[in-house]
Design brief:
The structure is a homotrimer of 269-residue chains. By secondary structure, chain A is α/β, with parallel strands linked by helices. In chain A, the strands form two sheets. A six-stranded mixed β-sheet of chain A has the order 1-2-3-4-6-9, sandwiched between helices. In chain A, strands 5-7-8 form a three-stranded mixed β-sheet. Chain A is globular and about 55 Å long. Chain A starts with a helix and ends with a helix. The interface between A and B is large, with 33 and 39 residues.
């Protein structure tokens, strides 16, 4: 069998990939985690789907999710289980997974359009400024309570958030864990535009089809102009953040913080 | 006759220039194009007027337009006519005109105040973040549908738009062609403040007179502080964008795209 | 007596310092100036309090003010008195005071939370983007009319304001002296969130206590990620601005401008 057949035979467990006319639709629909949260397996599948879309005739990638949640960030339940096993090793492994996942977004040369269908938390929200156009439903909300998680920012949010919304709002999100409604996220520049839930899918599709009708050379050259100069700075930010995560998660306090956070969440119910 | 007399005798066809007490008022009022759109001749006249204002006792330049339109971007009608003649040569010529026009704004050492009296499209909107204070009437709107034009961004908008309004909004404007009302443009940081059409001219004049009452050394030093560090980055962005324009316009697909765009506009009526 | 005792015995005249559980509360309450405005003595006291907070077990600094005013910028009354004495010497001295004061904020390694209880003018508003989280009461307002003061921007505002709110709004504030309500300042990214005056103090305290409950290593590493890459650029901006202030204040026109400004303020009553 040919390479092509092998690829098309490749089955995903945690995501749904639909090759459409002119674009690739990637939807989070995790079986190995709750609420589309990200563990190394889920991240790997997204990367693989993006690598395929980078090489085929897709003009862009449309990223979304099945269900009422977009992505609730890292899969802390599976992470803490591993972390109690071997703290040093597992924190390095998780930081490496995040680094590669985030670099996939930084280095992607075609436009990434995101349809945020519901809550976007932690890494699920932090990744957005590495994408190009972000449309959200009115029901979506956005939160990056890293300090409460007992961790430092990821997905370059320590670099991108201050540039998108100013330091005052960025710090309130990253340190104080302020939760933004879709409209607030739009006013602060994290989201391009907000649509009513009832027509969200159609509104996104109309706009994606318009984008796909543009010449691919124009889309590629435009993205290169818009992103070219910041790529190195983003890769460095990603590197610094992953080093900080290793230090924090590798320390006894770091693990304590995650346990405290999970305890609070459980007590909250 | 002296150089000074020669200069003051210089007549403009596509712009109106009024030397006022303390500032130079430049108004687009194009005869060689529709809707104050920009061709190499119009751009040249604006540059000449700005060069004069840079050298005389003007403390600032006030840029506006006669009529109900501010500036509808490039003059595609005349451009496509030339492009069909000699694609390579004419695309280089146009890119060179844009580069020089945009550099004139980047390198201008006195404050540039803009009164946006109506629609600002393409290059007419993209140039705004290279100016200093931008006041708009409620009736103005802003659109940079470059991908639909079949071209890549110009006037450093691939550099300035993400910095002004964040990547999500910048990409929606530059790739998806999202049209902003004056209030939306103000909320996103493209415009300083919006005024009612009935009192727009007066509101602008009051504020320009206040600015002109400041010491010229304070205005010059302030602008140097505010712009000094970004000049080189802007010049490089301008250079990269003009190179991309040459590549796109110089290709058969690029010319096709402009023709498609014009066809759609005609069909729209 | 020990060094520690000496320090705790240190009494402030123009500020109130309260070491709380997990943080240091610094409140402007100037005796040597009106409206919490800043002269070299007040700035020195703030620096001393911050140096103490940097070294002790405080996880963050909470900066606020006693009364209904936050900080009305430079103490022009005492400055003009000195300036008429020896213009060159006194303008250098004031610029040096500002440089050191501003660098204290740039280089502070723990989060700085600000509770803006009332008007923030000039240096009192310009310093905010060098802090991390900024909460304001609905009654606060923000103005940096530097050109009207006859001076150039300070506290890195020529660098931070365009990055926080875009060039159009930054220039309107710094050149045209546009006054922002608390809500406007929040929409433009200068402020993190606005609260009702009646519950302002409690809202701030709840959030400060939550921040203080985070591990100090997480707060320190997060701030290092968020600020690390911009420190050198901010120090350079501070340096350039202070050099410009020396040139402007050291000139006869500069002193004239301050006198004109004070005259207008007096005539305004």
């Amino acid at each position: 069998i040919s390479v092509r057949q092998t690829k098309s035979a490749y089955r995903y467990r945690d995501i749904v990939v639909r090759k459409q006319d002119g674009f690739t639709h990637i939807l989070l629909s995790t079986k190995s985690s709750e609420n589309n949260s990200l563990n190394p397996d889920v991240m790997k599948e997204v990367q693989n789907a993006m690598t395929t879309a980078a090489a085929d005739d897709s003009k862009l990638v449309l990223l979304g999710a099945v269900g009422s949640v977009f992505c609730c960030g890292l899969d802390f339940i599976s992470f803490i289980r591993r972390l109690t096993d071997d703290r040093k090793k597992e924190s390095v492994k998780m930081a490496d997974s995040i680094r590669t996942f985030v670099n996939t977004f930084i280095q992607f040369k075609k436009p990434i359009v995101v349809a945020v269908n519901g809550p976007a938390v932690g890494l699920g929200a932090a990744i957005l400024p590495l994408c190009d156009v972000i449309w959200a439903t009115e029901k979506a909300w956005f939160q990056t309570p890293y300090a409460a998680f007992g961790q430092t920012p990821d997905a370059c949010s320590s670099f991108t958030f201050p540039r998108v919304m100013g330091v005052a709002s960025a710090n309130e999100m990253l340190l104080s864990g302020r939760k933004l409604t879709a409209q607030e996220a739009c006013a602060k520049g994290l989201v391009s535009q907000v649509f009513w839930p009832g027509t969200f899918a159609q509104e996104v599709m109309v706009r994606v089809r318009e984008l796909v009708s543009c010449h691919s050379v124009v889309l590629r050259e435009s993205k290169a102009l818009l992103r070219g100069t910041s790529r190195a700075a983003l890769e460095q930010a990603n590197e610094r953040e992953c080093e900080a995560l290793k230090r924090v998660w590798g320390s006894p306090q770091g693990m304590d913080s995650i346990l405290n956070y999970l305890q609070k969440k459980i007590d909250g119910f």
